[in-house]
Amino acid sequence: MYSTHVGTSSTDAITIYGHDLCNELIGKASLTDLIFLGAQNRLPQESESKMLNALMLGVAEHGFTPSSLAARLTWLGAPEATQAAVAAGLLGAGSVYLGAMELTTKMLADGFAAHPEASLEEIATAIADKYEETGERLPGFGHPVHRPVDPRTVRWYELAEQWGVLGQYGRLLTAVHAEVEKRRGKPITLNGAGTFGGLLGDLGFGWQTVRTIVTAARAVGLVGHIAEEASRGTRDSTAQQLYMHVQDNTDYQA
Amino acid sequence: MYSTHVGTSSTDAITIYGHDLCNELIGKASLTDLIFLGAQNRLPQESESKMLNALMLGVAEHGFTPSSLAARLTWLGAPEATQAAVAAGLLGAGSVYLGAMELTTKMLADGFAAHPEASLEEIATAIADKYEETGERLPGFGHPVHRPVDPRTVRWYELAEQWGVLGQYGRLLTAVHAEVEKRRGKPITLNGAGTFGGLLGDLGFGWQTVRTIVTAARAVGLVGHIAEEASRGTRDSTAQQLYMHVQDNTDYQA
Amino acid sequence: MYSTHVGTSSTDAITIYGHDLCNELIGKASLTDLIFLGAQNRLPQESESKMLNALMLGVAEHGFTPSSLAARLTWLGAPEATQAAVAAGLLGAGSVYLGAMELTTKMLADGFAAHPEASLEEIATAIADKYEETGERLPGFGHPVHRPVDPRTVRWYELAEQWGVLGQYGRLLTAVHAEVEKRRGKPITLNGAGTFGGLLGDLGFGWQTVRTIVTAARAVGLVGHIAEEASRGTRDSTAQQLYMHVQDNTDYQA
Amino acid sequence: MYSTHVGTSSTDAITIYGHDLCNELIGKASLTDLIFLGAQNRLPQESESKMLNALMLGVAEHGFTPSSLAARLTWLGAPEATQAAVAAGLLGAGSVYLGAMELTTKMLADGFAAHPEASLEEIATAIADKYEETGERLPGFGHPVHRPVDPRTVRWYELAEQWGVLGQYGRLLTAVHAEVEKRRGKPITLNGAGTFGGLLGDLGFGWQTVRTIVTAARAVGLVGHIAEEASRGTRDSTAQQLYMHVQDNTDYQA
């Protein structure tokens, strides 16, 4: 016997996480509320729903990235199987670009767990000490383009404050940021990836869920990339152009 | 030189489809509005935004399906790479379960294109004739469980009417439904897949985009499946249970 | 109760397609023989084994292609999950580049089925007539680079002849080639994709298996691409270079 | 300017890793030799070629596994895009089932690097000490079914010896095995995964390449699974049967 709280359906009803899909969710809840239901087994309050949506919207799209280029190149070979292009665009959602998100949530969660009685400043100091000792890189800081400020960080914190969903995770992250800048003696960007991880923590998500949430957001973003390629046709697609460019500019060295 | 309308970023701004991500989208638009922007290059009106969200929410989650089982089985082998589990869960989004969606949009679009001056009833008759001639199966009708009525169909039409976004696609689909029932002499379900395809048509999406939209919705739904597995751990996961069941119940025939 | 002829294992033995893996296969059979076992439920004769290997080797690697670039771009984001990079590189194995392979096998199989008593020349004529009527493109002919001769075609036919595995499929394909050139009045390349599909037919494979065989061959080829990227590191990888190139050469048009 | 040693093609030749595909590889090399070329930039000697083939053949197929079930479930939804089914079957090739392979190669490589002058027994002791200290699990030992002996281990060592390709990696692994059994005071299986990783080391492959090699072998194995499903049709497929079983045996708990 298997069990799940995800969903079931009968002749005249579909039930998802304990809610009647047609009467309680469709038309009332937002698509991203499903994630709240799935990971936390309750519908979000309106402020939580808006914040999760704001966070996911902010990471869904980044223009031409290795990920969206992989999706487009896949589409070029299999335009009849667009689900494969979407999937290909998600597969690179690994440690390099997205690792910082879940690592930030984890860093904060571990900090709270290790110092249950301490102030945020004390935990921040302990975190900075720990990373200094191990030599590991603190997740969530620095950005190749957005320096010294990542505009998403500012906006997300502003909204979290405004909507009353800024909590201990976001505040601890701010304290870590301050501690890091103090030690460095110069500004460093608290980046969007780190803020995403921190504020998801305030919404109650465990670090293990962070990567799947950003992966889902990216899937939404990829729709536009594939639509753009489809509107141009294979011959005039970015993928074809890119392939031709590589063909014409490759030095073959046995 | 490549070109895209998807997005770009500079030191202090991220621009997506012509909108400043932080100031014009985050906190104002919903995640699914990105799809509207991507496929139609404009933000949806509120009613369109709500309808797209309602449609995607209705197809995001179906409990234990071949797709969500594939995601869970993939997670079992690679719990550290959850993007791969999400991707695996999307790869089966092919002709069998989801084909009817895009085919319905296409059937309706082709009907309008072939009979630009005809009434909806005339187009419906022509469509039914055409499928009868070729022997091909009309997409969008019949359901193994939801008989004679798919509850999503009812709900979506109700909302589309209420929000003023029911248009020619949805109406033509109703006419085709009536025509099919007349010819069969008994009720047949206008299913959720067909209705999804029809109402996306009314929101202005071309049939080529339909599959990527449902694929993105599914990615959101898969977050909960992977979270459920993760909360149980590999040993007690549904995937492990399923694997054990197959191990114990397989007859090997060389 | 499930059943399979694929394989099973006990405490001291692993059985695959009726053969003891350790004593009858490892050290005796080649990796690609598994495909023969899987699709035809018997081990190939030596000539068949060599031919299948020669065919797969010939389609495993094509240098920088949309597929291998997608694999490399995926690796760039998730170098810790190389299975995802391999998978991404396979997902574009769709209609555009590989469709011709299975379509050629199918074209030939359909020809034999429709004209069981006819000579190869008569079937070839019937096939050419049929495609002319429907206006569909004959699969297996033409090549953007290898004109008028695809070197793989020549080599594969030579080996098939030499090893005694050239049969009715390969011969009918030659007859179709002759018929097409006669109608066009000028040479056209019988390409590697078509020949691959034809000669797989002579080895007894149904057209439905053709795509998975080439997909498996590609997986083998992708190992070298990922190894090359890994040997350079993310910073100096082709994927990173490609991404930078796109970043620097994109015109954003809202 | 990009550069690669993988391959290139001109009007009348295809060159792969410095070898003319048609004249030097097809008909002479085996498919798996490509992997040697790709990772080590030279063709293997005959003994190396045979050993790599024997290793890959031994890990290509394991009957019904989470991976092959994911491939079959994906095929059920998208039988027209079999490349997606193959890819889905590869995506679970992560830490749980395959991690031990690359970790074994790495453990041995790290052992040699840390103790360049030591005897195999001394290195084995140092390795066992190190894992005992950190409490981490030694990779390559133990098996749920094959106890106390994994038949593949025996066979592969036998062949490696016979073909003259047993080297320092394989011998160190044997020494580690002896050391571990001595410390435990009872037998433990040196499993196939560990042996695979060890003997690949003797063939000159770095640990970073190990996972892609087994992934490619699995792709070959999946051809048979998909062929079996296709031969039964969607309705009678294992995937459909499995899905029905889950449908009928799920307890939904909101």
Automatic annotation (TrEMBL), chains A, B, C, D:
GO CC annotations, alphabetized: cytosol
CDD domains reported for this sequence: CCL_ACL-C
GO-annotated biological processes: carbohydrate metabolic process; tricarboxylic acid cycle
Domain of life (superkingdom): Bacteria
Pathway: Carbohydrate metabolism; tricarboxylic acid cycle
InterPro entries in UniProt: Citrate_synth-like_lrg_a-sub, Citrate_synth-like_sm_a-sub, Citrate_synthase, Citrate_synthase_AS, Citrate_synthase_sf
EC nos: 2.3.3.16
Keywords of this entry: Transferase
Membership in a protein family: Belongs to the citrate synthase family.
NCBIfam families reported in the protein's UniProt record: PRK06224.1-5
Protein name: citrate synthase (unknown stereospecificity)
Species of origin: Antricoccus suffuscus
